[in-house]
Amino acid sequence: MDELFLYIQNHIEYAPIIIFSALLLAGFNIPVSEDGMLFISASLAAKNPHMLANLFIAVYLGAYFSDLICYCLGRFVGPKLLHIKFFARMVRQEQIDKIHDYYQRYGIFTLILGRFIPFGVRNGLFLTAGLGKMNAFKFAGADLLACTISSVTFFSLYYRYGATVIDYVKEFNTVVFILGALMLGYFYLRKRGR
Q1: Is residue 40's pLDDT more than 80?
Q2: What is the mean pLDDT of residues 179-191?
Q3: Domain spans, the chain
Q4: Angle between the 136-161 and 52-72 helix axes, to the nearest 10 degrees?
Q5: Where does the VTT domain start and stop, copy by copy (predicted)?
Q6: How many CB atoms lie within 10 A of CB 192?
Q7: pLDDT, position 119
Q8: How far is CA 189 from the centre of its chain?
Q9: Neighbouring C-alpha atoms within 13 Å toward the C-beta of 193
């Protein structure tokens, strides 16, 4: 991460393009950290206030378009993968149907909560939204709201407090992850108990 930060800092005039492009790669499940890009862009904006708007727009649009790419991969490529034995053993149609049902009931809240959970959960949510054939316009609108909330929150925190807030953000993300897992477990057990 430090090398990437230094590279982008040394090429500050191209920073928005580099950040936006890196986040687009994340949409194809290439391991690029959205949180890392938010931190880098906010830190650079703090040191280069004249770049604030460009850096925020780059990281925000990069994160949003990355989500749309991931959704489209699930929607259009995912079903074809299910016909390949290797992938069909990993994800069964019943699981996709359950996820689709969950999105139908809790769609926007799933995306808002999921945006605050790192560890690859975000892309998993977006892929399964596509696989479950969540309405594309509904997904795009809900994710726009979720992306706006998370991007503005994290960018503002990193811009104002820098590296001193990273540990708190990691702890917050871990708590949200645990709460999300507990909620899923609760709903699953409740539904099974019927």
Answers
A1: yes
A2: 69
A3: 2-192
A4: 150
A5: 42-156
A6: 7
A7: 59
A8: 27
A9: 6
Cα angle for residues 51, 29, 174 (degrees, 5° grid): 75
Assigned token pair, 129: 């939204």
Specify the 3-state DSSP secondary structure of 82: coil
Long-range contacts of 65-69 (CB under 8 A, 24+ apart): 65/23, 65/24, 65/27, 66/23, 66/24, 66/25, 66/26, 66/27, 66/34, 67/27, 67/122, 67/126, 67/143, 67/147, 68/27, 68/140, 68/143, 69/24, 69/27, 69/28
What radius of gyration do the chain's Cα atoms show?
Answer: 18
User: 115-138: per-residue pLDDT in tens?
Assistant: 777 656 677 778 888 887 888 998
Question: pLDDT tens digits for 44-72?
Answer: 999 999 999 999 999 999 999 999 998 99
Amino acid at 18: I
In whole angstroms, what is the distance from residue 166 CA to residue 141 CA? 29
Q: What do you get for the CA distance between the two ends of the chain, in Å? A: 48
